[in-house]
């Protein structure tokens, strides 16, 4: 296992779920963390916990990844000792609604596209040139099985994750000849705030998504992210698809009665 002690890891969407779990795993492994999200208080709580538990150094950025001018101005002005990012975890993302496309809310579509696709692109465009210049680095995109298999009502969310899949594959081509690595991690059902956000805060509807089965946890995903990041420098894990044992596809899950 390659060490990531003192490496700089930038994680988007670190205020909750998979991003927050990645922050814990990388902190425990000795990394320095740049944590990005819109909810600064959440990041502050997380940073304080990581400082106490592991002595982790953090830089907190309150940022909407879909806000291109702010992403560009913030990430181009990182303090000197934080600028050489070693690992970028493009995790910020969300789903909104589960409506048929012809009944969907345009506002929901825009939020998903702005965050999951444009946000990922803006952050990558700001961070990746430094990696290429230094000839070291690793971009880890959090995709989804939704990018591999469409499901009813998934329409725009599935399309955004299919875009992430395609961007990861294209980046593998673009980065050929450099030492920079690119990975996509594509989970099935993970119990986080994801479904609450999808259903606009309807907790009962969100809980039903995970009823009668054991979903993946945010920690299960962070474990795989850290595994991919700590392979020897010549090893690139292109894509990892993982789902709960009780899930067979986006539309098939086995639920206890
Ligand atoms: P959560 O809702 O728990 O976390 C989402 C994170 O993304 C939050 O930290 C949120 O922070 C951040 N975020 C959302 N929009 C923005 C934005 N515009 N700018 C910056 N940060 C933003 O969900 P998950 O942890 O489950 O989701 C993480 C990723 O995993 C997403 O890309 C999701 O699509 C993907 N995924 C999730 C699966 C699941 O079943 N849960 C399965 C497969 C993939 P804040 O609101 O503070 O900005
Ligand atoms: C999240 C998994 O199947 O709800 O990306 O779209 S799914």
TrEMBL record:
<dbReference type="InterPro" id="IPR002347">
    <property type="entry name" value="SDR_fam"/>
</dbReference>
<protein>
    <submittedName>
        <fullName>SDR family oxidoreductase</fullName>
    </submittedName>
</protein>
<dbReference type="InterPro" id="IPR036291">
    <property type="entry name" value="NAD(P)-bd_dom_sf"/>
</dbReference>
<keyword id="KW-0560">Oxidoreductase</keyword>
<comment type="similarity">
    <text>Belongs to the short-chain dehydrogenases/reductases (SDR) family.</text>
</comment>
<dbReference type="GO" id="GO:0016616">
    <property type="term" value="F:oxidoreductase activity, acting on the CH-OH group of donors, NAD or NADP as acceptor"/>
</dbReference>
<dbReference type="Pfam" id="PF00106">
    <property type="entry name" value="adh_short"/>
</dbReference>
